[in-house]
Structure formats: C-alpha cells, structure tokens
Amino acid sequence: MKEGKIKSRDLTLFYGQKMALNSITMDITSKHVTALIGPSGCGKSTFLRTLNRMNDLIPNVKITGEVLIDDFNIYNKQVDVVNLRKKIGMVFQKSNPFAKSIFENVAYGPKINGIHDKKRLTEIVELSLHRAAIWDEVKDRMHDSALGLSGGQQQRLCIARTLAVDPEIILMDEPASALDPISTSKIEELIFHLKENYTIIIVTHNMQQAARVSDYTGFFYLGELVEFGRTKKIFTNPEKKQTEEYITGRFG
User: Fold this and answer.
1) CA–CA separation, 155 vs 196, rounded Å?
2) What is the phi-psi region of residue 230: left when phi exceeds 0, alpha when psi lies from -120 to 50, beta otherwise?
3) CATH number for the segment(s) 4-247
4) CA–CA dist 195, 170 (Å, integer)
5) What is the pLDDT of residues 166-195, one digit of tens each?
C-alpha cells in the first residue's frame, strides 16, 4: 500500500463524557477514494470531521491522538485552521449554495483568498465547473441564482465551489443521500474522475455506493474501526464476522 496522505494514530474523541471515537488508527491513501461505512451514530461522520478540525466548533469536545497530513500533525497548536481548511474541502449531505449567482458561488472562495482579477476569477470558475461536470448545464446561466438549480445540480455546484480553492483532499458527508438515482450516478461518476487529482474520503450509508466508488473501505461500529482494507476484499472476503454481518444486512 502506498504511503498514506492522511494517517490517524490512536485518535480518540469525547463529546463531554461520551466517547464517540475509540483509538482510530488508519492510513488513507493519496489520490484514491476511501469510503467510511457503518450504522447511524457509529462515528464515521465524527471521524470525517476530525480530518479538517470541524469538531473544534462543537463545545466540550476532547481529542487525543494524532491526525497526520503529509506527516504533519494537524492538531499541533501552531496549525492555522483556516489554511488547513483550504487544503481540505468539504461537501455536505444537503447542498448549501449561497443565495448568489452561479458565478459568485464558485468565485466566493478565491475572492476570500485575495484573488480579485476578473479574468483570473473567470478562469477559475470555468475550470471548477468543468471539473465538477456541470459546466455544460450552467454556462449560459452564470448570472442566474444558484437557488434555481435542481438538487443534483446544486450539489455539483457545491463541489465546484470546493474545487475553486484548489484543495488536495475532499471530504464528502453523504453527498448523494438527498438525490434521485440519476443525480446520484452523476455524483458517483464525478467522484471517479476527481480521484485522479484529489484524495477523497466519503461517508455513505449506501453500501452499493461504497462498493461502486471506493478503492478502500473502513467499517465503523460504536466508535471503533472494526475493519479497514481494499473495498473488494471488505465486500467479498471480510476478516471480521461483524463486517460480514453488516454488509449482508444481518444487523445495522
């Protein structure tokens, strides 16, 4: 296995007195898709949010252990969290476009980062929309409100907005759970193409989706990483009985 771009080492997280993650150790490989599966409340979304320190925003969170990105611990006191989140984009379950034009949605991040040259912004917006596989659908509507797009288009616009700040890692928390099957397949196809340039970690309840889009899969249960490995092996020949029972629908 290639050197992991992201490594968690004995990562433990408490919300107040409740342990949500118990000593998670995992290597996430660069420019591959890693799926996190498991029943609701098992810790997979919590783990995802430790990778860009989104849990910092929740009161009474205590974290021990390390998350290393390119061998640097992101929980080091010297880390600039704003810069960290530029490197690590996030796409949420519910698409959340701003009440602005399609152009302004994608240009928002680059503008905040100090890019104001119109020509350069236009290039970034067009490239991001191309990469998010939505350019052909919106190129004649750039100044229309993003809120007029369909749910699937809004989610791809949010992915374009994430790409516009040039991240290295993209976190996706159930990105297709609110979408119809056609929109879902477009998102899955997009994920497949994006891994050529980005390291992608996706949380999904949909086992078929995990099997289709990911190279590696981690199965979480009650805050623990039960099993982690190549997706094909996890789905066809898991080492742990618990993994097999979850994947075959006998519990969870």
Assistant:
1) 20
2) beta
3) 3.40.50.300
4) 9
5) 999 999 999 998 889 999 999 999 999 999
